[in-house]
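User: Okay, second chain of the day. Same drill as before: sequence in, structure tokens out.
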Amino acid sequence: MRLTRKILRRNLPLLAAGLLFTSTAQGGAQVYTPLSASVRSVLQHSIADQASTDAAFNSAQEENIWLRDMSRRLLKYIPDAGYRMDFLRTVHYEAARAGLDPQLVLGVIEVESGFRKYAVSKAGARGYMQVMPFWVKQIGTREQNLFHLRTNLRYGCTILRYYLDQENGNLYRALGRYNGSLGRPTYPNLVKGAWLRHWNLPRTAVLKTALAE
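Assistant: Same drill. Structure tokens below.
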């Protein structure tokens, strides 16, 4: 469908950044590769493990500072305050559980889906973190819904952690695998840019804020 000149002018910055989402998400897709029995077993256990209702913060004060700051940044994407806080707590828990920086995960979500819960890419990737349905068949169970908040984040964080381990901690290559664009710089650079420009809250800043309160 052809966009009008008015729409193109209004959305030119987003189009240039690859961040304009219409009926489908613009992220890529993880590429299916057969898993060894041992790797499948580990990933199945990770996906099936019961989720905690508590985010993985070191203290109530740190939790309040992080949630308050991230909530302010996320407001334009998720206006509902209650859902926004639940979303952030879930992101923090699932990211920390997988050994990822929660703010990196927010950067991934921004680029992959623009924080649209029901985003679907042309390749069929689903939800906030644009998880391909083949993962459910490989390591999950039939009833798992990739549009469910915690399920989508559990899969997305687990998959990104798996790719990081595959790439010996090389985030650039892991992000390329996650997006199905390994070897091309565009996607890793978009995520890095979103992470550092929009979601970066250094731990030193959290400590300074805590000391000032």
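The domain at 21-212 is CATH 1.10.530 (Lysozyme).

User: Thanks, on to the next one.
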